[in-house]
Design a protein that fits this description.
Layout (H helix, E strand, L loop, with lengths): L6 E4 L14 E4 L1 E11 L2 E11 L7 E9 L5 E9 L2 E9 H13 L4 E6 L6 E9 L4 E11 L1 E3 L3 E6 L28 E7 L6 E5 L5 E5 L14 E6 L10 E7 L6 E6 L7 E7 L11 E7 L8 H14 L5 E7 L3 E3 L5 E2 L2 H11 L11 H10 L7 E7 L6 H14 L4 E8 L5 H10 L5 E3 L6 H11 L8 E8 L5 E5 L10 H5 L19 H4 L19 E4 L12 E7 L8 E10 L2 E11 L6 H15 L16 H4 L4 H16 L6 E5 L3 H11 L12 H4 L11 H4 L27 H4 L26 E2 L5 E2 L65 E2 L2 E3 L6 E3 L3 E2 L9 E3 L34 H11 L11 H7 L13 H16 L4 H18 L4 H12 L1
Helix pairs in contact: 2-3, 2-7, 4-5, 5-6, 7-20, 10-12, 19-20, 19-21
């Protein structure tokens, strides 16, 4: 849409006495919009700054509203408004109270601000500004933090949403037309600084969505610092752009998936700690044989994505193993299934489903996702695990209804239902796909127009074939005490006994009570009748919080290609003991699973982990989960069963407690910025917070003033936390240290913890003169790939995170690496990852031609790359820069998307050497037989695709075996960059080869490699 999105207000009607007047919305000019993000390993901190101006020189604007998107799950931790010379710092309050404070300030003529999360979606926010003086500029700064999605093998994916997704269905109007971009006409500026931990190095930086300029070795806040392989900075190559789709940045980095656990102490809440444990799993179990239902969105909005959808479905269908049952559900305003019930995966059903997919069109109307999911669950085979893979490009209005339904179905099936949403296109809602994945115990992925979908679907299919494990638990190990005893806390044990004796006594037979007079002169009935009305939760029972509050409360299923992070909020009750490790446990039919992760302690107090943990806990509560749902009284009865009428209020009260205590916005908490906040903030800085009350959930209003941990107290809390390493317990505090570009050495920098350092860029170890940047390759979007540095003597602080033997998470029994065909299912790795040295560090590069342009550059110069890819094609003795012309942008500043069109099997005969690798892979997949081999009657087409002229079969060899070996070798050696697409197909082929019992496979493999050159 072309509608302008901005800060809008409504002028008083010209004729106040007339009813039903149309008064158009007026927009404040958006003078500037800027995003500055800092990536710290696997988390990010972003500052969004927007400058508006009241264009009138005579009129004060009573109130204006601005709606904008943020990525689902991020935690808004700071809200500041600058109006003229006034600086208003926000505090988080209960939503109704925040609205009341804002309304009172506006009624008094004071300037005020209010930031709220939309009730129907966690990725949409709105800001209200009251009493903007004539001619004044308004600067709104919003700081938010969040986890980063894992990308493929060694990458992270960072997204900045720029569109408010269109939602199907009726809902509230926020004054902003759906589907429009959230920036001014001059575009938005984006800067992303990347800081990886010491001992790691950045392999590549790319944007599949927009042209970018990448500076390797430095960050934007310290451009004169000595370059280091763990830093980089990326900006829009045109400076700013009118973004028509989400901005996506992918960073490839060494050891990004290694398990680690970080312990943080809160700076203002005495004795309160938080722990974060994060990993990308690596373990191997035999795959399950579930029921898989593909739920494909064929609504009208999919018209531009149907080719991508059909191509993805073809890869899905060809990659499935024998033994599964499957079905295809198409939906729009209605839904339809290929079969009434799921059928076994056979040659006949494969042919039927493939023909069905070729009929796909965007011709089914609206987007009724709920009905399609509900129908798929109702038709499931009850004795099989159900895996739903949802492919959709849109959003729905009533997300909560869908999440509640999925929560209930997953619980009733005892975890036998999982949902894997895949968002397609530029308008998908991250709140929908992420929330549905959390409720459905799966994981989500998103691809924009122009991105490849095939790799995503294969990863999702691998996830769907992962055995169901639903009993993951977390334990905390503590250091040995004076008695040489090692204590262990099990998180789940803290939920057994919760209600206090005083609370329990309310429901026991009571003694005789004193008589109450019916006429008491000391009583004022009018005042007494409203007693407690200001605290809507005064009537609720006391339910103390557990000393270890885990978020998410139930650890989700672990999958390769998907990062899992678990948090613990550790109450002051645990301060007497020092945790040394966390232990993750689970059971499977093949043996117990276990992983112990040593804990690293941040040297300086910080609150980032606390706020991430609190947001995750609040997210649980908002979506119908969380610790309080499993809390029990002394008799073992669930609290929700003891207090059914007030349980929803208990859930809301707990979310408000967490929001106010750790200063995070949510469904029931808002930021309010008024002048009166300054006094409250100052009091908190001077006095600090009191110890948590015994019943921390009791009396929100009564204890609210003691629970604030404001993110806006001082500069160190207002600014983005920037650092380069996780500090150990032996490091000296450096919380308030500030350095210039000529600051201290790298050894001094190591004293700065990753989450504790504010608004600064520390210098790192200088880059060695022997480091080199290789050749460049043309690409329709921006990326950069530096060379690998020499292998460090030590793997850094993350080295200790891996258990002895290198097994990150292992079952009691494992399968040999070579025998995948015997049923071993590898989550963390796959065969045939033998990329050529020239491509070893080009994991995320765009397909296309390669070229190079290098020139000498001294080590202290900044290395800037335009909208082209840099791969490590060669090693040189000094730094090189790659300078290429930028891809011309459209008049709006948005670049053309990479083109992609799948090729059908009927077009295979037309292949020549110029065909892209991606098209060749897709066509070879289509030509594979159901059993897993490539038939010799199609050898001419197959040879043409592989550009092989010698079509003879070696003497004595079976033609089908020879052709299959040749295709497998071609995929492994010539199409390594497409491994995510073909890996399951190759596994099926290797299974067929193993089943043939052919004795000369190794000799044929050598001949195939020689023939391919």
């Amino acid at each position: 849409m072309s509608s302008f999105c901005g800060c809008w207000y409504i002028r008083p009607p010209p004729h106040p006495t007339k009813y039903y007047q149309y008064v158009p919305k007026q927009y404040l000019p958006l003078l500037e919009s800027e995003v500055h993000s800092t990536i710290l390993s696997t988390t990010s901190r972003t500052v969004l700054k927007q400058i508006f101006k009241n264009p009138s020189t005579t009129e004060t604007i009573k109130e204006c509203t601005y709606a904008f998107p943020l990525y689902d799950g991020v935690s808004v931790v700071s809200f500041t408004c600058r109006v003229g010379k006034k600086v208003l710092r926000g505090l988080v309050k209960e939503k109704a109270k925040a609205q009341e404070i804002y309304d009172k300030a506006v009624a008094k003529g004071e300037t005020a601000g209010l930031l709220q999360q939309a009730p129907e979606a966690s990725d949409m926010f709105s800001t209200k500004l009251g009493n903007i003086p004539a001619g004044e500029s308004v600067i709104v700064e919003i700081t938010y933090i969040g986890e980063l999605k894992h990308h493929e093998t060694e990458g992270i994916r960072f997204t900045i949403p720029t569109k408010i997704a269109p939602r199907y269905g009726s809902g509230p109007d926020y004054g902003t037309p759906a589907g429009i971009t959230a920036q001014n006409q001059d575009g938005i500026k984006i800067i992303v600084d990347i800081n990886m931990q010491e001992g790691s190095f950045i392999k590549g930086v790319q944007s599949p969505s927009h042209p970018i300029a990448v500076s390797m070795g430095t960050v934007s806040t310290a451009t004169a610092a000595d370059p280091t392989m763990s830093k980089a900075s990326a900006t829009l190559s045109l400076g700013s752009a009118a973004l028509e789709k989400d901005f996506v940045l992918i960073v490839q980095s060494k050891d990004i998936g290694i398990p680690k656990a970080i312990l943080e102490t809160h700076p203002t809440i005495p004795n309160h700690r938080a722990l974060m444990a994060t990993l990308v799993p690596k373990f191997s179990l035999p795959p399950s044989r579930p029921e898989i239902v593909f739920v494909a969105d064929r609504s009208g909005s999919m018209h531009g994505n149907i080719p991508m959808l059909t191509s993805a479905m073809n890869v899905f269908l060809k990659s499935m193993p024998a033994g599964v049952k499957f079905n295809i559900c198409s939906f729009g305003s209605t839904y339809s299934f290929l079969w009434e019930r799921s059928q076994s995966y056979t040659k006949d059903t494969l042919q039927q489903s493939t023909k069905h997919v070729q009929t796909f069109g965007a011709n089914m109307g609206g987007t009724q996702t709920f009905s399609a999911i509900q129908a798929a669950i109702k038709r499931r085979w009850s004795d099989l695990p159900l895996e739903i893979i949802l492919l959709t490009d849109g959003d729905i209005q009533d997300q909560a209804r869908l999440f509640d339904y999925v929560n209930k179905q997953v619980d009733e099936s005892k975890g036998k239902i999982r949902i894997f949403p895949l968002g397609i296109g530029n308008g998908v809602s991250h709140a929908l796909i992420e929330g549905l994945a959390r409720a459905g115990n799966g994981f989500s992925q998103a691809v924009q127009n122009g991105e490849r979908l095939d790799n995503c679907v294969v990863r999702m299919l691998r996830g769907a074939l992962t055995p169901h494990i639903t009993d993951y638990t977390l334990e905390v190990k503590y250091g040995k005490d004076d008695d040489d005893f090692e204590a262990i806390d099990k998180v789940t044990e803290g939920l057994k006994v919760l209600l206090s004796d005083s609370e329990k006594s309310k429901f026991l037979p009571s003694k005789a009570k004193s008589i109450i007079s019916l006429f008491d002169k000391t009583v004022d009935p009018e005042k007494e009748s409203v007693k407690g009305s200001k605290d809507s939760s005064h009537y609720l029972p006391k339910v103390p919080t557990p000393k270890l509050l885990q978020a998410p409360h139930k650890i989700p299923s672990l999958f390769a290609f998907s990062r899992t992070s678990v948090y613990l909020l550790m109450s002051p009750e645990t301060i007497q003991r020092n945790p040394t490790a966390v232990v993750l446990r689970a059971t499977s039919e093949h043996g117990p699973l276990e992983l112990e992760i040593p804990i690293e302690v941040l040297a300086s107090p910080a609150e980032t982990i606390h706020q991430l943990a609190a947001k995750k806990a609040v997210q649980d509560l908002e979506e119908g989960r969380g610790w309080i749902f499993d809390a029990k009284n002394q008799n073992g009865k669930l609290v929700k069963d003891v207090y059914p009428s007030s349980f929803d209020d208990l859930v809301q009260r707990e979310a408000i407690r967490l929001g106010e205590k750790f200063q995070i916005v949510g469904k029931w908490c808002s930021f309010v910025a008024v002048a009166a906040n300054d006094k409250e903030i100052a009091e908190k800085v001077q006095g600090g917070d009191e110890m948590d009350h015994e019943y921390d959930m009791m009396g929100v209003d009564e204890f609210a003033d003691e629970d604030f941990a404001d993110a806006s107290v001082n500069d160190s809390m207002l600014s983005a936390h920037v650092s380069t390493s996780f500090a150990s317990t032996t490091q000296a505090p450096a919380r308030r240290m500030r350095l210039s570009s000529s600051g201290p050495s790298s050894s001094e920098q190591m004293q700065t913890p990753v989450f504790a350092q504010p608004q600064q860029q520390m210098r790192s170890s200088p880059i060695t003169p022997t480091a080199a940047f290789g050749s460049s390759s043309s690409a329709p979007y921006g990326s950069a790939y530096p060379p690998p540095p020499p292998e460090p003597k030590s793997r850094g602080l993350l080295h200790s995170a891996a258990p002895p033997g290198g097994a990150l998470l292992s079952a009691s029994s494992s399968s040999p690496a070579r025998k995948k065909s015997s049923g071993a299912f590898s989550m963390g790795s796959s065969k045939a990852r033998k990329a050529s040295p020239a491509a070893a560090f080009s994991l995320g590069s765009t397909r296309g031609g390669r070229g190079s342009s290098t020139s000498n550059l001294t080590s202290d110069q900044r290395i800037t790359v335009g909208a082209q890819a840099i791969s490590n094609g060669s090693r040189r003795s000094d730094l090189r820069s790659c300078s290429n012309s930028l891809t011309p942008a459209s008049p709006t500043g948005s670049p053309p998307s990479p083109s992609y069109s799948p090729v059908s099997p009927t077009e295979a005969s037309s292949f020549a050497g110029a065909a892209s690798i991606a098209d060749k892979v897709l066509t070879l997949i289509q030509l594979q037989d159901f059993e897993g081999f490539w038939a010799s009657n199609a050898n001419h087409r197959v040879f043409r695709i592989m550009d092989i002229t010698d079509t003879t079969t070696p003497e004595g060899a079976d033609p089908n075996v020879w052709l299959t070996i040749l295709v497998v070798k071609f995929l492994q050696e010539k199409c390594a960059e497409e491994q995510g697409t073909w890996e399951l197909v190759v596994e099926k082929a290797q299974t067929w080869l193993d089943g043939c019992g052919y004795m000369g496979v190794e000799e044929l493999e050598k001949k195939a490699s020689l023939l391919l050159g």
